[in-house]
Structure formats: structure tokens, C-alpha cells
Amino acid sequence: MSGPIRHIVMWRxxxxxxxxxxxxxxxxxxxxxxxxxxxxxxxxxxxxxxVSGVDYACDVVLVxxxxxxxxxxxxATHPEHLRVRQELADLRIARFQVxxxxxxDVPAFAESDLRRRSEVVAGE
Length: 124
Hints:
alpha+beta; 4-stranded antiparallel β-sheet; about 25% strand
């Protein structure tokens, strides 16, 4: 697989009160915005905070783009990314992710590719 990869992650966050949820959302947004310009191959970072208020919505979404698959894989173990993961670990109660070719192609993956990817990015 070559070409740009879009990496989208959505989280549900801890917080017993509306104020705690607001603070958690702000912390996630700030932490990921801080990655801009710090990781080679990370070409776009956008963080959105849910405004719908529906009970089934995620709290925060990260939309990022990488120059290629190798850049996305390097991101998984990059020290700055690992620092952010550690900083936010206690806030997360659920996480959802989709990675796809930004040019819209739908690749045929070998099962070994999918298994290797899950091992590389396990948990984040």
C-alpha cells in the first residue's frame, strides 16, 4: 500500500460531571494538537470535540494524515505519540479507529498484514 493514509480515532472519555468531561475533552484536544510538526510523515492533524450531546456520540475525534503506511507505523512507536498516549491513558473509556487510503482506493489486505498492523498499534 502506498500513498497517504488517513488515521481516524474516536474516544469516549471519563468524567462524572459535565465539567470533568469538558476538561477531559480539552486535555485530549490540546495534547494531540501539540504533535503538529513533531513527527515526520504526519502531514495533517485535526481534533474535533463533539457538540451533538447525544448519549451515543464519542467525545473527541482525531483526523490525521500520514504520508504513507510506513509513516503511520512509525507514529505508533514515536516518543512524542507515546508521551501523549501515557498522558491521556486514564481519560479513555472507549476507543474506535479507522485507517484508510486517503485517495479512496480500497486495498486487498492479506490476513498477515491485518494481524501485523493490530500488533503494531495495539491499544492506540
